[in-house]
Amino acid sequence: MSKIKLFDPFLDGSEKNAINQVLDSHFWASGAGTGYVGKFEEKFSKYVGSKNSIAVNSGTAALNLALSMFDIKNKEVILPSLSFVSTAHAVILNGGIPIFADIDSQTLCIDPIQIKKLISKKTKIILPVHFAGLPANLYEIKKICKENNLYLIEDAAHASGSSYQNKKIGRHGDLVCFSFHPVKNLAMPTGGLISINTKNYKKISTILKEKRWCGISNRKGITYDVKNVGWNYYMNEFSAAIGIEQLKKLDNLNNVRKKIAKLYNKKINLEHKMMYDENSSYHIFWIRVKKRNQFRKKMSNVGIETGIHYKPIHTFSMYAKNNTLPITEKIANEIVSIPIHPNLSDDEIEKIINSVNKFS
Ligand SMILES: Cc1ncc(COP(=O)(O)O)c(C=O)c1O
Predict the structure, then answer these.
(1) For the segment 115-154, what is each residue's pLDDT rounded down to a tens digit?
(2) Ligand 1 atom 5, closest CA
(3) CB proximity list for 160: less than 8 A, separation 6 or greater
(4) CATH 3.90.1150.10 residue ranges in the chain?
(5) Checking CA distances to 233, which of 38, 106, 164, 360 falls within 20 to 30 Å?
(6) What pLDDT digit, counting tens, does each position of 227-278 carry?
(7) Which residues approach ligand 1 with their CB closer than 6 A?
(8) Helices 59-68 and 86-93: crossing angle, nearest 10°?
(9) Domain 13-101+108-243 class?
(10) Residues of the chain with CATH 3.40.640.10
(11) Atom of ligand 1 nearest to the CA of 61
(12) What's the topology of domain 250-359?
């Protein structure tokens, strides 16, 4: 019995060709981000319609750098707890205070009503996650940011190719952070990117470029200056070359994911499952089941891999505080991700639907 994987990057021959070109060139990486990295940034900005993009080596690096652009020391950042832990770590690493808001039970994205309740004099940034690829309610969130003079940084790790109000995700917030981890819709060995929409995007881009490469600035030939600390966060040429090929296919691959999501939504007999929305990239398709361990075991026994996204961040010991998030906590005990990648055959999709209906 061959196993149905939860995630599986889609490849055709183009990625292999791209990698061979990088290998043969002997130019594998540059802190300055020239070569394929610069090309990928340009193409990604054009794709999402943003002013500029800075490529980095992970979604985590993108979040860390994006938050470092605002002085959040002892300031509050409002975010959902239902996310990968990097979203909150980025706040802590920049000296900020993560404030977790509850989510909407239908979308599993941060609930604007809950955001409003948590705004204080210390709030500086709203950090929504487009959970599973479904965009958060950016209309309301942008309104809240405007009314309260707050910045909007988006965690779009799941949302390569998602859209909101006819614009690609990456075009809305001040800074939008993507992940190109191999499980993501746009897959690289490792990678991330910050999409920039601020008026002063040129200045922001320059600072971000410095920060992603150890603070190196004013580079002229072999001389340079260092005015601030920075990290080794730059993207390598292999990732960028693969990314360029993956970007060409992204919309088509997301359309395949949407077709599967439509079928799941129609044929899975569960009250609680991810909604169908053509704006979602469907990085994940989630369902909610009562006896989760039993369900996952039965799925595994018939060769279907499932996952849990996520254990809420505020339930980890370092983030445990006394605030309760009733919807997040209820959902966290029931949520299961089922396979939805473009490599699934029709037979496998049917098997997944039948198995979910049988075992849930
Ligand atoms: C919501 C979310 N944010 C951030 C990240 C971090 O991305 P990366 O793994 O590329 O560092 C991930 C990756 O799983 C994620 O799912």
Answers:
(1) 999 999 999 999 999 999 999 999 999 999 999 999 999 9
(2) 59
(3) 169, 178, 180, 184, 185, 186, 250, 281, 283
(4) 250-359
(5) 164
(6) 999 999 999 999 999 999 999 999 999 999 999 999 999 999 999 999 999 9
(7) 58-60, 83-84, 86-87, 129, 155, 157-158, 179, 181, 192
(8) 30
(9) alpha beta
(10) 13-101+108-243
(11) 11
(12) Aspartate Aminotransferase, domain 1 (3.90.1150)
